[in-house]
Amino acid sequence: MYIPQGLVSAIAAVSPNAIFSKVTHEKVIGLTIDDVPTASQPGYPSTQRILGAIADYNQTLVDQTYRAHATFFVIGEQLTHGTNILHQIIEQGHEIGNHGMRDHTHASLPYGVLDEEIWRSHQLLTSDTGAQIQWFRPGRGIYNQGMVTMLRRLQPHGYHPKVVLASMVPLDTRSEFKSPAFTVQYASTFVFPGAILVLHGGSEERDRNTAQVLRTLLPRLQAKGYRAITLSQLFSQPTQLSPLQSG
Fold it and tell me: How far apart are CA 124 and CA 81, in angstroms?
């Protein structure tokens, strides 16, 4: 669901260990793609479809400051041994986030099980790519104190000490809201500076819908003066001083 900007700030004030948005004057949003890649697809053509939609948009730009980049939250068990999809994501200017080994509710796991899963996923994401992972997003968008403790332990490995959630969560995983037209209208209507948008992969249908959304949404955001960037880029933006900061 969409969380109004004022409510985002209020929630952030009482949830100091989670990130919902970035307080900034800059017209930027954090673009994130969850649940990639789609499992059991040689070459991952469905995930390639999402990458292609962003690449095609970038190729149309005259003003390169509007180049779009995303944070792809990867599920470890959906990677095939020997795949180069992570390299492709990185080479195209995007970044990788840790979404655990399985698509489930991480908040329901005992601490030791959670810690083992996230570390295993981290090793899988970094062993061949050398990627610097900064972000962890839990399944179902639910977090607990165990995750915070885990992330503090992972800080020496580059992780941000807060769980990253979002301010704009299109309901594109639910059948009644999966229409690309609905998602485009929803996201473009309620965007604000520093918002974090979540779209989904993980199945051929979701990948196709997300690619279709991006082909319409990115130009629409650009027309409003917005840039879609990675979370790391978002949190390198100047911060607007406020008593209700979220980042």
Answer: 10
Residues with Cβ < 8 Å from 242, sequence gap 6 or more?
A: 9, 23
Cα within 13 Å of Cα(82), Cβ side = 4
Q: Are 133 and 126 in contact (CB under 8 A)?
A: yes
d(CA 24, CA 30): 12
Query: Is the pTM of the predicted complex or chain greater than 0.70?
Result: yes
pLDDT tens column, 6-34: 555 656 666 789 999 999 999 999 999 99
97 beta partners: 73
Using CB atoms within 10 Å of the CB of residue 62, give its burial: 0 to 12 exposed, 13 to 18 middle, 19+ buried.
Answer: exposed
Number of residues assigned to the chain: 247
Domains and CATH numbers, the chain: 5-234 (3.20.20.370)
Measured at the CA of 230, the angle between CA 42 and CA 28, to 5 degrees, comes to 140
- Helices 145-154 and 111-126 cross at an angle (nearest 10°) of 40
Backbone angles phi, psi at 27, to 5 degrees: -85, 80
